[in-house]
Every structure is written in structure tokens, then in C-alpha cells.
């Protein structure tokens, strides 16, 4: 239910990551009583990226562009020659890197065998026992495990008694996983979003439920979908990584499909959301900084949508509904952080918005859920998670602290807004998800022993503040084994992202727990550009402020070493996607701070990418990186930190990069050229110096034939 809001709050990151493999409609096997296997994929409600076994919420953040180089030329013949030359260069570089990988990978055979065995052991011990998020409809509970969707009675779900409604394998989608589930209000239909690891697009399968569930319809290239009525589905389509059209389709009486809304501005991305009381379906058109919402009255789903408030530059807003009042989560007004406001449905313009509640300074709004008499805000402040429960009856606000070990949460879907309990899961990189609930009647937090998942007790969590170049205090979250001695001798893995207002991904991963058990220290640097301390934290690290994120990262690593957490020769830096900008920049400016760098599908050539307006998302991305085509100062500024542009002969750390041959957001050519240039610079430096003990860094690129941008199942991520 909160998928649209999670997209909005996570820096308006609209990454369409779904699957487009089409099978003809077919009849499912009759539902049968089985004991469900444990899950691989946990997400049954989010519309964002899904990872392995951990909740996606924070979708591992995404980078949107190609890093291909080349210039436009007027001559068609010259242009064709340029394309042929570029393709040949790409093939030669790829072949060279594949040969290099084939030569070097056997060196790590014994190590990878040991790691695989350990990760499988941890996966079986923790993740398979953690349970999956659930969708609750009265006495019915829907959940997804192991590629199947199950239906159980609330009293039986923990006993393992459930009916199977849908199976990926039975329908022939063996390489796909379930990304999103929506049940119609009367539970007669179920819409399922399926995505494969090799495509950005998804398909939506509509199933008619009953004693013999059948596939009613298959819709290709779908991003988001919501039920406006029992048999009326609204959905958005995706093309070239953009989502700008909304359609309505019906399944009974006069079956038909029609276009409802089209977004004309290339900077805006459209998705759908239903208010918790199901009174309205909202069509949300958002850029990185601006929103516009249209309402579809679910009592009259065939009527045209009505506008809430015309887009106003810099104003983001999201709509909920309760008792003929719109509740607006918005950045409107000062300070430009999220606040809860309300207005009558009939007079929804911002001149009528009245303040209900404003967040404290440096507080991150992680999520928001509306109920009949209350709403819950999931908040983060100074690295700690807590709840604010706002009562519309008593007009009071109650703050509820969550366990100190918790770093990430996932809201479980409970579509009935009249429920008296809010269900969610808490986790951390080294703590498997645990089920919790908040009772409005009892006003207390309940830890649910749905399935016993032991909390890791030998891991110590420390929260630090590093002073950056401009005196700003930057949060760091550190994990290490309580029994570790001489921490300055222990290896340290530093994590960074710092873009799009998105938090570092801090839900459970088996490999993080494995590292802790083997004596590693894990540090998460919440630098500016990310969203850990609210919208201003993002604004202070985007466009002409990007270097602040680099200064923050440098300050964090320096403080860790000063406090005795490892030392440079035992320190590795890891980043994914747009996090590659800051990691790659630090590798150029302060290579002596780290010994190794690990990047996954990294964005490493900001300048060339932002100069290419023919790429599908360049214009949209200008709100994050700036527009170097029209602003010479912006061009100079990007060039000052761009990882690819600033490679030079010096002693670099070793580098391991994973890239994906079919990645539509960061195609391979740019990464191939980055690796080639980096390797040449390292070799040039080594050839010019004869200092005793001089070393040549190991620079490896592993090109995965399968998989898409930072998005993988448990099996695929295990292979990585």
C-alpha cells in the first residue's frame, strides 16, 4: 500500500525494474493445501528494486544512464562509421576483460568455495527462518515465498497451512521473481508484477481467484498498478526507462482498456497509489523536486481524474484521505522539509492546506501509514529509528523508540485502514528481519515471535559523528564483533552512497554477518547527498554541492582510523551505482586512505553522461547533477570530481568492479573505458617509480552475462 510513498520519500527515485517475458493466459492448477517452502524474495508490496532475501525498501539505489562516449557528427556516413568503430572498440575491450577475468578468477577458487558454503549456511540459519511480509485482509493473509503466492487464514498462517494461488514455475516464468502484488477490494482478482534479472521491464499478470485460479490477462511493460474497484485496474506503462502513461482496464461486463493520463514533461515520472481507505486512487507525477497529484474517485472509477494542486517548482506532495479530508505529506512552506497538512477534498489547493504536524530538524521521514483514527510516521534521527503515532481523536503525538540495533524497517501491507494494529519488520545489515507490531488500543510495541529468529548478540553497534571540511557533523554507523581484539589490526569495509536523497541500504545481508564473524569491521558513512537527515541533507550534497559528499567521506574514513578502527592498509571501500561517483572520486583524491575498492555497476563518468541529452533520463537527472550543456560553471564543477575525468598516474588501491552486460542504466562501454584508463594510470605510475616495496594494484572487472542494474535474486547474488 505504501509503494508510491516509499518512492516519493526515497528521493523520488523512479527506477522501473521489471520483467517483460510474455506467456499466453493459461489455467492454474487447482489450489492445494501445502506447507510452503521458505522464501527467497520478501517483497510483496513494493514497486522498487528487490534484493535477494532482504526487504528492498531501500532499493539498492539506481543510476539511470549510459556512460557511452562518442560525439554527434552531421554526416550520416561518418556517423555510421563512428558507430561501427565504437562497437568494435566495445567488443575488443570486452573480450580483453573477459580474458583477464578468466585468467585471474581461478586464483580465488578456494576462497569463493569457502565463502559460498558459509553464506549458504547463514542463509539457511537466518533468512529462511525469518518469514516474509504479509498482506492482511480480515481473516485472510496473503504472502509470497519461494516464487509462490499463498493464501492462509490468520490463525493458520504460522502453522504452515496455506493454499497456493500462484507459482512462477507452473506458469513457465522460471527466470522471474515476484515484484509486487495487489489484491482487488473484494478479493476476486489478484494482480502480480513479475520481473526477470535480465530486463528492466515487468509484466503484470491478472488472476481471477476462486477454487480454480486462472490467468485472466497479461499486460506487458508495466511499472505500477492499483485496483480502483473490484474489477477496474489502473496501471502505468514503461518505455525507455520512462513511465508517462496511465491506463484503465476492466474485467467484467464490457471489457475494455483506455488511456487515462499522459505526462508531457520528460523530467516527470508517473506512478500510482491508493489511499489507505481506498476512497481515492492517486496518479502521482513527480520529478526529483516537484510533484503533481490527480485523484480518481474509487466510487466512480470511470470518471476523469481531478487535480489536487498544480505542480509548483520545489514543492513535493503526497496524498492520503480520511473522513472527507485530504492529508498531505508535503515540503510546502518553511522549512522545506516534510510536514503533514490537511485540506477539504472539495478545496484541495495549497492555499487551503493547514499544518497538522511538522518534523523536527535533521529528521528523516522514512515512511507514513494512515489508519482510521491515527497515522504512524516512521522516522530516523541520528541513526536511530522510532515511530511517531499521531492520534486524530485525542490530537496527541506519541513517540515510540525502536530497538537500538534496528537500522532498516519494512512496513507489512494491511489494506484495511480500520485495523487496530500496524505490522512491520526491523532489520540491520547483521540482524535478520524480525516481526513487530504497534497496537493502537494498547499504545505499545509488540515483538512478534512469528518464527524464532535469533538476534545476533556478539555484534556491537556504534554510532559516530565525523567533522567534515565545513564543520558539518556526518553520521557513521559501525558494526564489529564484541570479541574482536586490537581493532586497529582488523580489516574495515566502508560503505557509501550519497545521491538522490536515498539512504544507504542497511537491511540484512548474509555476507555482512559473515564478515563480522570473521573479524571485519563494517562502517556505513551517511554522507550528504543521501537522505539520512532529511531533505536538506540531500540538497547539501547535490548539483553544485557534490564535493561536500566527498569531503564527508574523507572525514569519516579519517575519523575511523583515528579512533582505532583499522588502518589504511586494511581498509576497503564499497559502493554501488551512483555511489561510484564518491567512491571513485576518493580513489583519485585520497588513494592512500584505502587499500581496495569494490564497485557494483558504478556510475563513473558523470560529465560525458550529462552531456548527452539523447539518453532517456539525462534531462530528469539534471536536478541531481546539474546541466553542463547550458552552464559552463556546472561543466567545470562536474569535471572537478568526475571519477573518469580525474584518473592520473599514481599509486591506486586495488579495484574490483562487477558490471552487467545487459544493464540498461549503465551500459558496459563506460565501465570498460574507466577500467582501461585506471589500469593504464596505475601501470604508468609503477613504471616511473622504483621505490622499494612499490606494488601494482590488482584491477579486475567481472562482467556478468546475466542480471540487471544492482538487482538480483538470492541465487544470483550468491554467485557474485
From TrEMBL:
<dbReference type="InterPro" id="IPR051543">
    <property type="entry name" value="Serine_Peptidase_S9A"/>
</dbReference>
<dbReference type="GO" id="GO:0005794">
    <property type="term" value="C:Golgi apparatus"/>
</dbReference>
<comment type="similarity">
    <text>Belongs to the peptidase S9A family.</text>
</comment>
<dbReference type="InterPro" id="IPR001375">
    <property type="entry name" value="Peptidase_S9_cat"/>
</dbReference>
<comment type="function">
    <text>Serine peptidase whose precise substrate specificity remains unclear. Does not cleave peptides after a arginine or lysine residue. Regulates trans-Golgi network morphology and sorting by regulating the membrane binding of the AP-1 complex. May play a role in the regulation of synaptic vesicle exocytosis.</text>
</comment>
<keyword id="KW-0378">Hydrolase</keyword>
<feature type="domain" description="Peptidase S9A N-terminal">
    <location>
        <begin position="114"/>
        <end position="444"/>
    </location>
</feature>
<dbReference type="InterPro" id="IPR002470">
    <property type="entry name" value="Peptidase_S9A"/>
</dbReference>
<keyword id="KW-0720">Serine protease</keyword>
<dbReference type="GO" id="GO:0005829">
    <property type="term" value="C:cytosol"/>
</dbReference>
<dbReference type="GO" id="GO:0006508">
    <property type="term" value="P:proteolysis"/>
</dbReference>
<dbReference type="Pfam" id="PF02897">
    <property type="entry name" value="Peptidase_S9_N"/>
</dbReference>
<protein>
    <recommendedName>
        <fullName>Prolyl endopeptidase</fullName>
        <ecNumber>3.4.21.-</ecNumber>
    </recommendedName>
</protein>
<keyword id="KW-0963">Cytoplasm</keyword>
<keyword id="KW-0645">Protease</keyword>
<dbReference type="GO" id="GO:0005856">
    <property type="term" value="C:cytoskeleton"/>
</dbReference>
<dbReference type="Pfam" id="PF00326">
    <property type="entry name" value="Peptidase_S9"/>
</dbReference>
<dbReference type="InterPro" id="IPR023302">
    <property type="entry name" value="Pept_S9A_N"/>
</dbReference>
<dbReference type="GO" id="GO:0004252">
    <property type="term" value="F:serine-type endopeptidase activity"/>
</dbReference>
<dbReference type="InterPro" id="IPR029058">
    <property type="entry name" value="AB_hydrolase_fold"/>
</dbReference>
<feature type="domain" description="Peptidase S9 prolyl oligopeptidase catalytic">
    <location>
        <begin position="507"/>
        <end position="685"/>
    </location>
</feature>
Amino acid at each position: 500500500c505504501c509503494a508510491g510513498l516509499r518512492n516519493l520519500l526515497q528521493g523520488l527515485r523512479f527506477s522501473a525494474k521489471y520483467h517483460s517475458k510474455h506467456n499466453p493466459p493459461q489455467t492454474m492448477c487447482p489450489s492445494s493445501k501445502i506447507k510452503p517452502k521458505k522464501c527467497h524474495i520478501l517483497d510483496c508490496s513494493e514497486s522498487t528494486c528487490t534484493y535477494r532475501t532482504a526487504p528492498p525498501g531501500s532499493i539498492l539505489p539506481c543510476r539511470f544512464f549510459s556512460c557511452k562516449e562518442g560525439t554527434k557528427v552531421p554526416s550520416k556516413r561518418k556517423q555510421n562509421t563512428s558507430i561501427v568503430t565504437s562497437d568494435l572498440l566495445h567488443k575488443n575491450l570486452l573480450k580483453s576483460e573477459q580474458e583477464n577475468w578468466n585468467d585471474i578468477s581461478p586464483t580465488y577458487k578456494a576462497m569463493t568455495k569457502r565463502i559460498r558454503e558459509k553464506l549458504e549456511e547463514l542463509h539457511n540459519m537466518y533468512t529462511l527462518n525469518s518469514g516474509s511480509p504479509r498482506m492482511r485482509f480480515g481473516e485472510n493473509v496473503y504472502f509470497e515465498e519461494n516464487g509462490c503466492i499463498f493464501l492462509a487464514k490468520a490463525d493458520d498462517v504460522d502453522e504452515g497451512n496455506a493454499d497456493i494461488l500462484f507459482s512462477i514455475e507452473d506458469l513457465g516464468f522460471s527466470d522471474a521473481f515476484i515484484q509486487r502484488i495487489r489484491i482487488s477490494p473484494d478479493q476476486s482478482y489478484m494482480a502480480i508484477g513479475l520481473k526477470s534479472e535480465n530486463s528492466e521491464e515487468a509484466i503484470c499478470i491478472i488472476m481471477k481467484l476462486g477454487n480454480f485460479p486462472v490467468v485472466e490477462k497479461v499486460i506487458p511493460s508495466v511499472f505500477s498498478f492499483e485496483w480502483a474497484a473490484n474489477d477496474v485496474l489502473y496501471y502505468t506503462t514503461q518505455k525507455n526507462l520512462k513511465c508517462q502513461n496511465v491506463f484503465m482496464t476492466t474485467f467484467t461486463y464490457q471489457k475494455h482498456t483506455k488511456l487515462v493520463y499522459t505526462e508531457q514533461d520528460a523530467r516527470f515520472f508517473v506512478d500510482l497509489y491508493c489511499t489507505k481507505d481506498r476512497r481515492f486512487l492517486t496518479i502521482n507525477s513527480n520529478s526529483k523536486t516537484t510533484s503533481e497529484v490527480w485523484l480518481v474517485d474509487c466510487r466512480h472509477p470511470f470518471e476523469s481524474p481531478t487535480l489536487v494542486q498544480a505542480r509548483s517548482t520545489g514543492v513535493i506532495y503526497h496524498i492520503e484521505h480520511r473522513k472527507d479530508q485530504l492529508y498531505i505529506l508535503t515540503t510546502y512552506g518553511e522549512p522545506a522539509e516534510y510536514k503533514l497538512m490537511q485540506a477539504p477534498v472539495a478545496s484541495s489547493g495549497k492555499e487551503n492546506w493547514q499544518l497538522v504536524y511538522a518534523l523536527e530538524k535533521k529528521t528523516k521521514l522514512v515512511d507514513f501509514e494512515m489508519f482510521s483514527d491515527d497515522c504512524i510516521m516512521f522516522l530516523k534521527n541520528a541513526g536511530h529509528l522510532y515511530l511517531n503515532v499521531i492520534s486524530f481523536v485525542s490530537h496527541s503525538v506519541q513517540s515510540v523508540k525502536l530497538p537500538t540495533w534496528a537500522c532498516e524497517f519494512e512496513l507489512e501491507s494491511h489494506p484495511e485502514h480500520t485495523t487496530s494494529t500496524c505490522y512491520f519488520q526491523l532489520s540491520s545489515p547483521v540482524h535478520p528481519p524480525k516481526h513487530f507490531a504497534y497496537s493502537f488500543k494498547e499504545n505499545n510495541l509488540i515483538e512478534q515471535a512469528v518464527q524464532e529468529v535469533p538476534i545476533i548478540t556478539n555484534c556491537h553497534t556504534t554510532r559516530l559523528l565525523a567533522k567534515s571540511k565545513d564543520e558539518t557533523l556526518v553520521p557513521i554507523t559501525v558494526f564489529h564483533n564484541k570479541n574482536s581484539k586490537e581493532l586497529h589490526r582488523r580489516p574495515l569495509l566502508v560503505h557509501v552512497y550519497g545521491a538522490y536523497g536515498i539512504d544507504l541500504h542497511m537491511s540484512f545481508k548474509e555476507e555482512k554477518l559473515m564478515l563480522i564473524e570473521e573479524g571485519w569491521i563494517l562502517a556505513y558513512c551517511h554522507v550528504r547527498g543521501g537522505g539520512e537527515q532529511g531533505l536538506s541533507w540531500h540538497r547539501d550534497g547535490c548539483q553544485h554541492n557534490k564535493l561536500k559528499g566527498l569531503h564527508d567521506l574523507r572525514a569519516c574514513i579519517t575519523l575511523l582510523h583515528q579512533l582505532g578502527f583499522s588502518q589504511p592498509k586494511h581498509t576497503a571501500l564499497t559502493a554501488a551505482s551512483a555511489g561510484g561517483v564518491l567512491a571513485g572520486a576518493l580513489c583519485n583524491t585520497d588513494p592512500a586512505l584505502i587499500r581496495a575498492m569494490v564497485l557494483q555497476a558504478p556510475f563513473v563518468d558523470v560529465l560525458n553522461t550529462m552531456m548527452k541529452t539523447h539518453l532517456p533520463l539525462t534531462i530528469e537527472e539534471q536536478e541531481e547533477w546539474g546541466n553542463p550543456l547550458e552552464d559552463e560553471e556546472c561543466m567545470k564543477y562536474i569535471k572537478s570530481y568526475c571519477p573518469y575525468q580525474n584518473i592520473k598516474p599514481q599509486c591506486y588501491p586495488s579495484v574490483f568492479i562487477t558490471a552487467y552486460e545487459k544493464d540498461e542504466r549503465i551500459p558496459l562501454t563506460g565501465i570498460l573505458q574507466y577500467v582501461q584508463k585506471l589500469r593504464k594510470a596505475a601501470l604508468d605510475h609503477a613504471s616511473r617509480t622504483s621505490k622499494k616495496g612499490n606494488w601494482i594494484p590488482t584491477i579486475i572487472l567481472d562482467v556478468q552475462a546475466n542480471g540487471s542494474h544492482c538487482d538480483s535474486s538470492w541465487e544470483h547474488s550468491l554467485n557474485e
